[in-house]
Amino acid sequence: MDNFSQYRYPGARPFQNTDVDRLLFRGRAEETQTLFHLIRSEPVVVFFAKSGMGKTSMLNAGLSHLLREKQYFPIFLRCNTPDRQLPDALFEDIALAAENKAVDFVPGSTETLWTYFKTTEFWSSDNRLLVPVLILDQFEELFIFYSKEARTPFLMQLAEMLKPASALAALPANPEDKHLGSSPPEVKLLLTLREDYLAHLDELSPWMPSIFRDRFRLTELDLEAARAAIEEPARLENASLSTNRFVYAPEAIDDILRFLRQRRVGEQRVETNQIEPFQLQLICQHVETNLLGRTDQEQQISRAALGGEEGMKRVLRDFYDQQVRRISRGRDRRAAYRLCEKGLIIDGTQWRISRAEEEIKRQYRVGKPLLDRMIEARLLRAEPRLGSAYYELSHDTLVAPVLAARKRRKSRQLRTTLILGSLFLLTGLGAWQPLLKPWILSIQATPLEFVRIEAGSFEMGSDEGESDEQPVHTVVLSSAFDMGKYEVTQAQWARVMGTAPGYFFGAQLPVEWVSWEDVQEFLARLNEQEGCGGCYRLPTEAEWEYAARGGNDRRWDCKRKKNAEQSLEGEFPLVG
User: Fold this and answer.
1) Distance (Å, rounded) from C-alpha 261 to C-alpha 223?
2) Which tens digit of pLDDT belongs to each residue from 13-45?
């Protein structure tokens, strides 16, 4: 059984073209039929939507089966590997798609897309000639990953592919291809892309003036369709599913819809009649995987079980972190975070990127077992290409939560693990100074080691950074101070607090996952135990940055920026 098909609600990943997913995919019947008839009647159709509307799900679980029933062969292709030249990469992927779908494939001339589809044949298992439907999914990737110089010849070929021979800019160079007839190839073209990239299709207009004529926009679910997408999968009985059928209490469905239909407009929250499918799937997946008990009897999900609006907000906010924690520990968890946050999102953007399995293993130390678990957790999706597998985040709408989680975790690390490691002993302690050993404080036989930070000045801020970092300004630290050399360990924390929180346990491991309030409590108890009148505190932002720079004006006290960024991920010490 396909691992993707065992749950009723796929969460972040798209629905797939499987028997059970087609049964579970609800709420898009009308839109699927409309798009299907448009494709049958027109040579090229543009299918677009905002992220999270479920374009790929509708293509997989809705449209594909309809096309195959009418003797079409849907071929899903992506233009997201700039190291592979177009259209040659498509020829290779088409052959692979035919093999995967058990379609008899008679390859033709690869001189151009026009000659290819004039000479290539696709046959079904019952010996029927199939009409190829070229589905260039997430077509915005062409404009992201390929330069204009690289994509323009491909766009010209794409437009000419649908024209008669008399309209071609140049006849085929191969003499054998000059007798293929004047009619256009028997092929359909479906371009799917994000709504914010729709205007980029204007690059096709010199060769395809009607590019915007036949288009279909997928919008949010209306309330009736959203209700069906919640209720009907829960009621389905199918041996392939991992959970027994269940029902929602009517007021529970009302609460879900009320929560999902809210939008923030400026400072106000308003209710609409539109529901985003991605958010709906995450909440329903949470219900199925976390709220159902282990029983053979039909269960009902109550309003109270959802936890109200705050409970549903938490589901959306915590999805990414919860999934990574659920499937990995220790080194695997850190590798999973690095892959998602550094490897699968283009730096400084909100764009996903796909990477080959071998590259992921080499650069991010994530092996096949962990990749499989990340796919099963709906964090990643895999796509076979040329004997390898390429991996990417399972959905565009995961990018924002991933980046937000990364920012929260970095901030938490700087406030706790890193800054907690920088507890320092203030100078000018007067009568308390003789009580302390130079640079070493003993907390019940567990030493905190300090280093002297001399007074000085530095240029703080950035003219190119966030607004709260601007402008660059001079900061003067007039007095020297002593700063903790290492992170506070769990043993040191436990000597003061009695217990040591953290997922990774070990006396000499740093304290982790503690809040700012926890640190304040630790400081209060430490000061009380040592009787030094509040001599321990956290450094200010300026004091921390001054120490981290190591006494110079570079952004980081590291030889390369890369090392500095990695140090924030815990791979290199910031100073030392």
Assistant:
1) 9
2) 889 999 999 999 999 999 999 999 999 999 999
d(CA 358, CA 375): 16
Residue 101 located in a structural domain: yes
Tokens encoding 454:
């001399």
| Residue 465: per-residue pLDDT | 58
344 near 357, Cβ under 8 Å? no
- pLDDT for 445: 37
Q: What is the CATH number of the domain that holds 117?
A: 3.40.50
Contact 547, 477 (CB under 8 A): no
The total number of structural domains in the chain stands at 3
One domain, residues 441 and 511: yes
pLDDT per position as a tens digit, 499-522: 766 656 677 788 876 777 778 888
555 contact partners, CB below 8 Å, separation of at least 6:
462, 549, 561, 564
Cβ proximity of 107 and 95 under 8 Å: yes
Tell me which DSSP letter residue 377 carries.
Answer: T
Contact partners, residue 246, CB within 8 Å, separation at least 6: 234, 288, 292, 298, 299, 300, 301
Q: Are 185 and 163 in contact (CB under 8 A)?
A: no
Q: Where are the alpha helices (DSSP H) in 221-272?
A: 223-235, 250-260
Alpha helices in 180-329 (DSSP H): 223-235, 250-260, 277-286, 308-327
Q: Are residues 465 and 392 in the same domain?
A: no
Give the span between the Cα atoms of 198 and 215, in whole angstroms: 10
pLDDT higher than 50, residue 421: no
Contacts of 469 (CB under 8 A, 6+ apart): 461, 462
Q: Is the model's pLDDT at 47 over the cut of 50?
A: yes
Spatial separation of the C-alpha atoms in residues 180 and 171, rounded to whole Å: 11
> Which residues, at least 6 apart from 67, have a Cβ–Cβ distance to it below 8 Å?
36, 39, 73, 74, 133
